[in-house]
Amino acid sequence: MQILLVEDEPKIREVLIAYLRNEGWDVDFTPNGLEAVDMFSNRNYDLVILDLMLEGMPGEEVCRTIRQTSTVPIVMLTSKSRESDTIEGLKLGADDYIFKPFRVKEVIARIHALLRRVKTFVPEKQKSSVLTFDKGRLVLDMEAKTLLVRGLLANLTSTEFKLLTVFVEKPGKIFSRLDLSHQVLGYRFHGDSRSIDTHVKNLRKKIEEDTKEPKYILTMVGEGYKFIAEADKKE
Fold it and tell me: What's the CA gap between 156 and 49, in Å, rounded?
């Protein structure tokens, strides 16, 4: 796996590089946001670890720029600890958000969890199949990991795709936020349901005609979420 590490604190950067390479991963690094964008445009990366307080260009803008062309998994590292900062980072398309100071082993564990969920997820009953919903308005290719919404390709992040596949595997089932954290993120959040809420909100923007009155992903007050579109029958 090829990782781009964008971190301007030398000590943190050196420790992360050592641990990442110990996992057998290749690591390119830079402390500069502008240079990070340039590096990303010239090489294929499997993961980006992104600090927010950077020279040249802030991490938020780096994330926004990457998301214009790529769904590569992004893990944000930051000393900003306000909940609003976390939500904003996830809205920009980050897949995970880790606060400083952190334990490097936790970062590695979170990366492994992220990698597990970006692998092709195909429900056992529907392997190698293209699923359609709502008379073809949603077309989900489980193998290619793509989604067509009313004929247009939706640019889902890896987390959004995994979230959708969890929903479509069991239409009508109510998933609690804790369940979704476990199945989608690979670990359980305690007291941080806003992360899942934000991923659901981002997914709705890409599949719903009206996010204020969603028809596919419904909020069950006090319980969680459920997906209600049944798969179209194959003729």
Answer: 19
Structure tokens at 186: 């690979």
Would the pLDDT of 185 be above 90? no
Number of Cβ within a 10 Å radius of residue 210: 8
* Distance (Å, whole) CA 210 – CA 80: 32
User: 179 and 186 in contact (C-beta within 8 Å)?
Assistant: no
The span from the CA of 5 to the CA of 125, in Å, is 38
Query: CA nearest 230: which of 184, 167, 149, 152?
Result: 167
End-to-end CA distance of the chain: give it in Å, rounded: 41
| C-beta of residue 155 within 8 angstroms of C-beta of residue 110 | no
Nearest of 202, 206, 200, 205 to residue 219 by alpha carbon:
200
Beta carbons within 8 Å of 9's beta carbon, 6+ residues apart: 51
Claim: this prediction has a pTM higher than 0.85: no
pLDDT at 119 over 70: no
| Cβ partners under 8 Å of residue 79, min gap 6 | 53, 99, 100
CB 46 within 8 A of CB 4: no
How many Cβ atoms are within 10 Å of 4's Cβ, its own excluded? Answer: 23
The pLDDT of residue 92 is: 81
